[in-house]
Amino acid sequence: MPSSALNPPPTLADLERRPPPAGPAIPSTPQHPAFGQSALRQRRNRSNSHSSHDSHDSHGSHSSHSSHSSYARRHPDRVPPKAASPNGAFLSVLAILSLVLAYTLVGLWIFIKGFLLTRHELTGVNECAKPFDPSWSLPVPPWSFDDALLLQWAETSLNPQTGAGECRLAPTHKKAVVLIVDALRYDFIASPPPPSSSAAQGVEDGWTPNPYYHNILSVPSQLTTRYGIPANANKPGPSSFIAHFTADPPTTTLQRLKGLTTGTLPTFIEAGANFGSAGTGVGQVNEDHWIAQFKASILAQSGKNEGGNAGLVFAGDDTWSTVFPGLFDSDKMWTYDSFNVEDLDTVDRGVETRLLPFLQQNHPNRTAGVHDDWRLLIGHTLGVDHVGHRFGANHPKMKVKLEEVQAFLKDIIEAIDDETLLVLMGDHGMDERGDHGGDAELEVGAGLWMYSKSGFGYTARKQHFDPAEYISGSEVEALLPSRIPFSPLPSPPYPSSGHRSVPQIDLVPTISILLGLPIPYNNLGSIIPDLFPHPDTLLRTLRITAKQMRTYLTTYAKHSPDLAAFSREFDTVWLDAVRADAELAALLQGGKRMEEVEKAWRKAAQAYHRFNRVSLMKAREVWAQFDMVRILVGLVVLVLGLAVIWMLKSGAQDGLLGVLPIAAQQNDENGEATTETRKEKRRSKGTQELLSIVLQSITRPAQIGTAVGVAVSQASYLLPLISSLPKFGVIESTLASATIASQLSLLYDHLPQTLVSGKKEGEGDVPNTTKVLNVAGYVILAIHAGLFASNSFLINEDRFILLSLSTLITLRGLRCIGSCPTTRGKIRSAIITLLSLLLVRLASISKVCREEQAPNCKSTFFSTEALNSPYLMIASYLFAYLLPTLLAKFLGQSKSFVGIAPLFFNFGLRPTLMLGSGYWLLDWVIPQDFVVESGWGERLDWLKGWVAKVDLVLLCVLGLLFWIFAPLCLEIRQEPANTASPEREENKPKVTIRGYANSLGSSYLLLVGIVVSLLWLVTQPAGQLSLAAVVLAAMLALELGDAERDTLILHDQKHNPSSPIRPPHLSSSEIATLTLLSHLAFFSTGHQATLATIQWRVAFLTSPVLSYPLSPLLVLLNCFGQLTLLPPLLTVLSVLWNSTPQPRGSAKKMFTPQHILAALLTTTLYNTVLLLSLGALSALVFRRHLMLFKLWTPRFLMASVAGVMVQLGGLAAATAGWQVSNKVNNVFGSEFQ
Q: What segments bear the compositional bias annotation Basic and acidic residues (predicted)?
């Protein structure tokens, strides 16, 4: 049935037929009490002759305010009192929601402090004062190979500080040039397939090289094919080494720079430091690293002070200034903005311009005395990475950028001398969309190329010698294979053995040894054996690396227990390595045959390499410690908070028992009636009384808990009994104890009555179908929370959202079809249901697939990986134009598209939506060849930025101000009198208030339109289409919910005709539908619970330069706006939709604040259950799972952000509902409780 059937627009005659107050007749100019002292009045002259007219201004007045006021003063008994303000009721709603938010924040903060602790950093430095000895040999072994003697021999004789051990080797190179090409994937530099391809063998593999990035940057592969590693050379010569360079996730630049310089492993939570800026200390490296060791060595050799210039030069990504402040020579460091992904060339041109003068003697910018004295050149280009983010890997601009890198690399190779080591590498890879951040194969698959004109050493051996195979064993290969497959370069045509692969942190000890430096203190990498092609040199480097790693692990165990579980295994493999080394020393001392020595050499090398790899892999398994005490305390707070939410939701619906004041009339001694206020235990009525009961329960327990928390925090430092437990700070302990105390008191006082509360007095029976639907909402929630127990279900959460949403809509539609009393209502419900299902399915077409979903998923969010298509642009513009019209149709159902509504939709919403589409149209046009060739690129780029700025100002400033001060969507229409029989009541002039029945919902929809337009701007075109479909589906869901409540009211009137009509609360299935729609919007706008799907481009929406705090806010809005802003806004809109105001004098109060509170608490309940499920599963069940940081941790962080932001959005949505209610209160005199 039509949603307005129960609430037809009233006429002035209808209102006038209400019983007048006792006393003399009201003067001939009628003033309905509902209008009060507002300006919404219509004068009716004595002759009853009116000209019909429409008034689109609900504040237009045609009567004298002063005459009405004087009448009120003369006859106070005939004018109803001024309606009570809704401020108290809504302030109570905000207070209760704030309390729930505080509980969530405390629990989440404590839990995260225990679950996402960063790796314990040791600030020790490898103080290697011993010079290298070219003639060094193993010391005399112990007289017995007893375990204790072997360990003593290792700690004394092999100790470089106190014994004869080594801590460095003679440098093979005095200088180094390190060129980091951001996001340089391995296959961008890999060699082409060998000549004996599959085609020659008659095998059809179907693989062809990509024309945009394969064999474009070909210099590394050409020189490797020509020179390789001269394993059996007898004199120095050029050497080249190329490999797959495996990055440790998270594959963000800052974390990779730490690993490439310190040799340490990152933790997941450190990815957030990528937004740190220079000078803040966020992301700064405080650990020992090879660049600092190189600088110290240079200064020591030259006799300069510690702060002097050492000839360290840098140009490129400004992240280096964050990671290494003050490290490079102050006059030889040039940094460029790293986040401006729109700029493809500035950083690359800057690196070339700044570094080539140091290398080329005839460079025009070279200055004698300035460009001569250098020892280390580091360049970090960003063009390849930015092309990936902007267009994807498979794009012609990628070929152009790789050709530029090729030309730059050729200039470097030509200019370097024999003493210079050249390193080309990527800090991480990229997927085909150009994204990175996670641990997908293409994201961690960077490329490494090392080249030297003088070689890395020569062997003077006649037999073939493969260092990687020489030190490898079956156990080590199982832990960390030296050759791996790589999907962009499949077999065939590439060898089935795979591609040579080394971990990125292996660069640290390798480059340290080559430059004659001590290995950084915290290093967990091993050397790259291919660069040390003599057994003796190889063993010495492995021994030095293992010895330093052993020192680090021993020291680490004293500061943190997280590696304690592997201490026995560490000791075993270390003892095996020392034993093999002692056996070799005994053979060398005894002058044994060379064959035996060779075997012992290899055995010792394999043993040390095994120790290095076991240490790395065990540390990688742990890589972050867990504080179980904080985790459990945080979970307790969250669980109790969930129970409190349930209890408060029930209290908002049915009231809570408490001691409350009640007014009672009695006669005094003189027989006069007096009113006395006394207190009695009863159920709360309204949100103010609910808040009063809550405060009674939590105030004193919170005070006691605060005192206990302070005492406990101090006792943890004083009492030996609990000194072993993690120490809580004063703030942490106080918040935890006060929160838990107040939660327990609140639950103890009111949870039992909530669980056993039955049907309220006067409340009718609820149809069984309604009960089933209410249960269905919670069943969907339980399944949603439970699917995180399986990694397969978690990976395919987007499919579950589509399935569960379709199921809920179908169930609700069938229920409405079966319950509607009229055929028209049944047909309308069926149409709404079918349209909702269609829109949901259309919205789900746009998606981005996770790596784990392959090959059963194909990304459709981008038409060609990262480039939006012109067809999407056209569709985006079309929907930007049509969406306001379609939304207006919903207002038309309740005759609410009146007043300011047409003005807003036609001249406010539609232009801002089209500006949002126009921004992305310009974004697509600017890089097109015809625009680049015309020279209009810069001007259009400037215009694009201003389009976004204008749109943001229109929405966030002018739009919000307009909405705050705009009148309700009302219109007064007057019908002329029937002059034939003017004396009859029905023939008198009639004044109809159009929009009355939905005056709350129509005004609130304008605000929802502003938020949707804001999300439209930060969402790319494919996502805009999905967003439009989700918004329309949500509006249909509102109509479906309104129809459900109408049938409940009709059912209640039928079975309880004497009971007063009380609008039902939103059902759990309705709120679950809105929440699932927001999840669908999240997935269909190009997002997944992975770092790689973060759309960094929107950070530069208004400017090519990163700006704080706007840029992070835009990224946050793009990622979580649909997930966190839509649910509370749509929930409140659903409460207000077709909620008819009760005019002054009706003796009825509106329950809007209670309904809003109950609905928002149900939305909060949904998100809190998901958060709690993920937190408990991650910390208690899967904390040692291999996929913890790949699957559960990102989803937990997503749930955490969503849980907090939904509650913040709920506060904003409730405040907006307060504003609309104030307007209705002022116009109609409606009262709220």
A: 51-60
User: What pTM was estimated for this model as a whole?
Assistant: 0.79
pLDDT above 70 for 669: no
Alpha-carbon distance of 1063 to 474, in angstroms, equals: 72
**Residue 225, amino acid:** T
What sign results for the dihedral spanned by CA atoms 115, 118, 124, 126?
positive
pLDDT at 1175: 87
Taking the CB of residue 990, how many other CB atoms lie within 10 A of it? 16
- Does 44 have pLDDT greater than 50? no
Other residues' Cβ atoms within 10 Å of the Cβ of residue 211 = 12
Q: Is 944 exposed, middle or buried (0-12, 13-18, 19+ CB in 10 A)?
A: buried
Residue 977's CB: how many other CB atoms inside 10 A? Answer: 18
Question: Is 922:938 a contact under the CB 8 Å cutoff?
Answer: no
DSSP 977: P
Q: Give percent of the chain with pLDDT exceeding 70.
A: 84
Q: What pLDDT digit, counting tens, does each position of 1046-1083 carry?
A: 888 887 777 777 667 778 899 999 999 999 999 999 99
Which region among 202-206, 497-501, 617-621 has the lowest average model confidence (pLDDT)? 202-206
Beta bridge partners of 483: 500
**CB neighbour list of residue 935: distance below 8 Å, 6 or more residues apart:** none
Confidence of residue 21 (pLDDT cuts 50, 70, 90): very low
The pair phi, psi for residue 108, each rounded to 5°, is -70, -40
From CA 947, how far away is CA 24, in angstroms rounded? 63
Closest-CA residue to 1019 (of 930, 1069, 1086, 941): 1086
Tell which residue, 905, 926, 916, 925, has the closest CA to residue 950: 916
Helix, strand or coil, per DSSP, at residue 633 = helix
In the chain the domains, ranked by start, together with CATH numbers, are 173-197+209-497+507-522 (3.40.720.10)
Q: Which of 437, 445, 495, 456 is nearest to 193 (CA)?
A: 495
The confidence score (pLDDT) of residue 157 equals: 84
Task: Specify the length of the chain in residues.
Answer: 1233
Q: What is the pLDDT of residue 196?
A: 60
* Crossing angle for the helix pair 1152-1176 and 1068-1084, to the nearest 10 degrees: 60
Q: Phi, psi (5° rounding) for residue 842? A: -65, -40
C-alpha atoms less than 13 angstroms from C-alpha of 1196 in its C-beta half-sphere = 25
CB 572, CB 437: distance < 8 Å: no
Residues 1191-1217 as b/e (b if ≥16 CB within 10 A, e otherwise) read bbbbbbbbbbbbbbbbbebbbbbbebb
Rounded Cα distance between 817 and 823, Å, is 9
Token pair 């009859």 in the structure block, residue: 984
Q: How far is Cα 244 from Cα 111, in angstroms, rounded to an integer?
A: 38
End-to-end Cα spacing for the chain: 29
Say if strands 175-181 and 420-425 run parallel, antiparallel, or are unpaired. parallel
Give the side-chain half-sphere CA count within 13 A for 623. 22
Three-point CA angle 950, 951, 957, nearest 5°: 85
To the nearest 10°, report the CA torsion of 586, 589, 592, 597: 60
For residue 279, pLDDT over 90 is answered with: no
